[in-house]
Amino acid sequence: MESVIIDKFQSLRTPFYYYDTKLLDITLDTIKSCLDENMHVHYAVKANANAKVLRHISAAGLGADCVSGGEIQASLDAGFKADDIVFAGVGKSDWEIKLGLEAGIFCFNVESIPELEIINELATECGKVARVALRINPNVGAHTHANITTGLAENKFGIDMQDMQRVMRLASEMQNVELVGLHFHIGSQILEMNDFRALCLRINELQDNLEAEGFTGLANINVGGGLGVDYQAPEVNPIPNFKQYFDTYRKYLILRPGQQLHFELGRAVVAQCGSLISRVLYIKSNAIKNFLICDAGMTDLIRPALYDAYHKIENITPADDASDNMTVYDVVGPICESSDVFVKNYRMPQTHRGDLIAMRSAGAYGEIMASRYNCRLLPEGYVTEDFV
Ligand code: LLP
């Protein structure tokens, strides 16, 4: 982080999020440079819906992947084109479906028969035809945290593979829905390209079966998101290996002529550009521990408490004495919960009251998951342009 920016941090209320939009823009350019004409990335807005961040992403020409009416609205407000918006989620409310219909979004990713019926009904009421893709549960496991795998039969997401043809038949009989594709998503923070390969092979198998049954002409395959980032060494790998990721699909997924391939990347787009900046309140030591108590808590960044997630922590206040005494801390927040711990037994240079620390790789599922528990204020989000 540049020292001129750190200087400007001093006067701000902590904790806050800082997004390095230079890195974000380079990340977006890298993604675009990896895409063929038939490949489309819809940014998963759930990862970060900060308006300034969304504007960078929409300006780069990506589409949006939304899971609520609020996200559709935020995307439209940030300049995403309606016909680049996909809308997923197991529990879409009527008003959310109507908002999608009125806006003319590209596609509803449908997760059940009852939902399909309601979309048809509401589309009839509005005099529209809803484009839908069926979200199929591919029963492909991903090597990631149990709370964020989604593609297994035990998860609540999607339609069972065995039911797929029945649902497709049903959809084709409905007057006000148009079946335009299939949708999949196997989980998040996936670093094993073999997991994505397994998804490709499953989709190939499903497409073969469909063709054998006489179903042809699906225009779109949406493979969801899930590409992970390097939380251990964000400075070494600030940009995920997008080439390897897209090449995996290019190599293993057999598309039909004219078929368009859609992705819903969230974390890989925004994680590394964001840091949660917090001020050290107290250093408290007992017989066995040094606690670094900072003013950010699990209400600002819940990932460590919820998923045991690791975020690298750096003291960004320049040291006066240039001494580099390493000390071991439990870095904790001020919330009245024992799980309000960012990291235990963490070795870092000796830190003092008043220092600013940065929790790195916090651009995805950080600010957006903040809560007001303990009547705390929500953290602000700043971008590089705010400091020039
Ligand atoms: N598409 C669908 C249908 C999804 O459910 C998700 C994420 C994505 C795309 C974007 O996945 P990504 O590219 O970001 O991995 N709060 C958790 C992550 C939850 C992910 C939920 N679904 C965390 O902080 O790790």
Small molecules (ligands, ions, cofactors) in the structure: ligand LLP
- Rounded to the nearest angstrom, the distance between the terminal CA atoms is 14 Å
CATH class of the largest domain: Alpha Beta
The proportion of residues in beta strands is 15-25%
- Let me know the number of strands: 17
CATH topology name of the largest domain: TIM Barrel
Rg of Cα set: 22 Å
- CATH architecture assignment name of the largest domain: Alpha-Beta Barrel
Secondary structural class: alpha/beta
> What gross morphology would you assign?
elongated
Low-confidence stretches at least 5 residues in length (pLDDT < 50)? none
Query: What is the residue-mean pLDDT, rounded to a whole number?
Result: 95
Secondary structure elements and their pairing?
Blueprint: H1 3-9, E1 16-19, H2 21-33, E2 39-44, H3 51-59, E3 63-66, H4 69-77, E4 85-87, H5 94-103, E5 107-110, H6 113-126, E6 130-137, E7 159-160, H7 164-173, E8 177-183, H8 193-212, E9 220-222, H9 242-252, E10 260-263, H10 267-270, E11 274-285, E12 290-294, H11 303-307, E13 313-315, E14 326-332, E15 341-349, E16 356-359, E17 380-383
Parallel strand pairs: 1-17, 2-3, 2-10, 3-4, 4-5, 5-6, 6-7, 6-8, 8-9, 9-10, 12-14
Antiparallel strand pairs: 1-11, 11-12, 11-16, 13-16, 14-15
Helix pairs in contact: 4-5, 5-6, 8-9
Bound molecules: ligand LLP.
